[in-house]
Design a protein that fits this description.
It comes from Aegotheles bennettii. 11% of the residues lie in helices and 52% in strands. The protein is mainly beta.
């Protein structure tokens, strides 16, 4: 029997088999050991491109862009109703490294929703929040809390415009009591007004004005008093 000489390879044969088995470019449906399901595009054996993931444990679905195994780009995340099993959208918008990042809309239980900027999975940047009680906040956010400049409008149309910190009114701001026809302008600290001026504002159009108008301020320099209070507040923050 003649001797047959096989060509020598520079790598083990199982490396070649593994390389050929890798999912790359085409759409595949794959089931994980825990029952999770993914159908979509792949690159170097990682979810990459357009695809849909279904988590068996919760029934949640993500459909959108992937990058090297993580949600990255534009996509939507939905969960099934515990009774009807109908899918309800929870978030739709932009993702980065598997977290909400960029502009997106979040739908909360009870009808609340947020539309605006995200960073690292948290509301950060400029956004608008619709609360269950009918209040609306629009302004700056930082790590899931109103922080910076923003306006909160209450269901009775009263509103606060000014500075926020860690989800509370903090710094210079104005509170419009539309129902009474009054305006408070001053300095706030952790949701508590510390110093300011209360005047009549739109009293004739107010649905429930106070019995007597607020008398005119007799201070020689009311603006100077308020400016001094602002300076004291700034010093306390430094």
């Amino acid at each position: 029997m003649p001797f047959v000489k096989y060509p020598r390879t520079t790598e083990p044969l199982w490396h070649e088999w593994e390389r050929k088995a890798q999912k790359c470019g085409l759409r595949h449906m794959v089931y994980a050991v825990n029952g999770d399901q993914y159908i979509g595009e792949w690159l170097d054996n990682l979810k990459h491109g357009k695809g849909t993931q279904v988590w068996k444990c919760t029934g949640a679905i993500y459909s959108g862009d992937w990058k090297f195994g993580k949600r990255h780009g534009y996509g939507s995340y939905s969960i099934p109703h515990p009774v009807t099993k109908e899918y309800k959208k929870v978030y739709t918008g932009w993702w980065k490294n598997d977290k909400k990042s960029g502009y997106g809309m979040m739908f909360y239980p009870g009808g609340e929703r947020y539309e605006g900027d995200w960073r690292g999975g948290l509301r950060s940047g400029w956004g608008r929040m619709y609360y269950q009680n009918g209040s609306i906040y629009e302004g700056q956010w930082l790590e899931d809390q109103p922080d910076g400049q923003g306006m909160l409008r209450l269901p009775n149309e009263n509103r606060y415009e000014g500075s926020w910190e860690d989800g509370k009114k903090h710094g210079p701001g104005k509170f419009f009591y539309v129902d009474k026809g009054q305006l408070f302008e001053g300095i706030w600290e952790a949701d508590i007004p510390k110093c300011g001026i209360l005047i009549d504002f739109g009293r004739d159009e107010a649905p429930a004005p106070t019995q007597y108008p607020i008398p005119k301020i007799e201070l020689a320099d009311p603006d100077g008093v308020l400016a001094e209070a602002q300076a004291l507040f700034d010093d306390s923050q430094n």
